[in-house]
Amino acid sequence: MNETRRAVLDALAEGPVAGPDLADRFDVSRNAVWKHVEALRDAGFEIHSSDAGYELAAVPEFGGSTVEYGLEAPFDVEYHDAIASTNDRARELAATSESDVVVLADEQTGGRGRLDREWVGPSGGVWLSLLVRPDVPPSHAPLLTLAAAVAVTRAAREAGVPAEIKWPNDVVVPADGGDGDGDSSARVGRKLAGILTEMEGEADRVSWAVVGVGVNANVPGERLPAEATSVQEESGPVERRVFVQRLLETFDELRADPDAVLPAWREYAATLGQRVRVETPAGTVEGNAVDVTVPGALVVETDEGRVHVHAGDCEHLRPA
Ligand code: BT5
C-alpha cells in the first residue's frame, strides 16, 4: 500500500473526516482522495460516507492491504486468493530487485514441503513466503528458519494454542496438550505448521532467501493429513490478519537481533531433552537432543559422543 493510502486509512479509522480536509492534510487533490477511498473499498475495507465525511467501519478478514494496515514491520504484502505455491511466486520476485515482500495466500494448490514433499494448503490457512535479502553468509541462513519457527509459535500461543517447536522446521502441538500431564517422553505432536527456507547465495553473502511458512489456521481437521492439526481445531478460529501481523513482527524483530533467536527457540523447543532419531544425508544419528547451536544445528548426545546435526528429519522416540 502506498504511503498516502496508508495515511488516509489511518485518518478514516479515527472517525469521520471530510474529503476536502483529507485533501488539505495530505496535500493532494479531492479527486485523489476519492480514488484512495475507492481503492480501499475495492480491497474490502468498509468505508461509510455521511455529511460528516468518510469513516472506516470494518476491515476485511484477510488480504494484502488488511495485513499491511497496522502492521509494525516493513513488509509489502502481495495477496492471492489461490496460488500454486507462495514460495514459487516469491522466487520469481527474487529475480527482480524486490525485497521485504510477503507473498500471502488463502489457498495453495501446489504447495511444497522439504525434499519436494507435498504440502496440503486448503482455503482458510496462512500460506506465506517472505522474500528477504539478509546481509549474512549462506551458512547462517538456517537461523531464518529458526526465527520463523519462533514467530509462528509465538503467534499460535497468542491465539491460545500450546505450540512448541520440533527441530528443525515443524511447529507442533504436543500430544499432552502442552500441560505437561501426559507422558512427556513420548510427545509425538500433531503438526500445526511447517517452514521451507530456500535461498541463493555467493560464498560470503546470501543473495536472497525465501522463508515459506505454512500454518493450518482456520482449516477443519478433515481437510488435513491425519497427523496434522490446526488453530481452529485446537482453540477455535483465529483472526488471520492479526495472526500474520504478529508473525511478521516477531520475524522482523528477530532478524534485527540474531542473538535473540536461539534463546527464544530453546524456550519453545519440544525437541530438547528428548531422545531422538535423525535421518541425515550422512546417515542416522540417535541419542538425546541436548541443545541447538548457531546457526541452527541440533546437538545430539550419542553413545559415541556429541554430534552436531545440520539437516535431517527428526523423530522423537520413547526412551530406550
Ligand atoms: C515442511 O516440509 O513442513 C515445509 C512446509 C512449508 C509449506 C509452506 S506454505 C507456504 C510456502 N509455499 C510452499 O510451497 N511451501 C511453503 P516437511 O518437513 O518436508 O513436511 C512435509 C510433510 O508434512 C508432508 O510429507 C506431509 O506428511 C505433512 N503435511 C503436508 N501438508 C500438511 C499440512 N497442511 N499440515 C501438516 N502436515 C502436513
Features:
320 residues, alpha+beta, Arc Repressor Mutant, subunit A, BirA Bifunctional Protein, domain 2, SH3 type barrels, eight-stranded mixed β-sheet, 29% helix, 32% strand, binds biotinyl-5-AMP
Descriptive account of the structure:
Helix 5 (about 85-95) links the parallel strand 3 and strand 4. It contains nine helices and 15 strands. Helix 6 packs antiparallel against helix 8 (about 240-255). Strands 3, 4, 5, 6, 7, 8, 9 and 10 form an eight-stranded mixed beta sheet that branches. With about 325 residues, it is of the alpha+beta class. The chain has three domains: about 5-60, Winged helix-like DNA-binding domain superfamily/Winged helix DNA-binding domain (Arc Repressor Mutant, subunit A, Orthogonal Bundle), CATH 1.10.10; about 65-265, BirA Bifunctional Protein, domain 2, CATH 3.30.930; about 275-315, SH3 type barrels. The site of biotinyl-5-AMP (BT5) has 28 residues, from helix 5, strand 4, strand 5, strand 6 and strand 9.
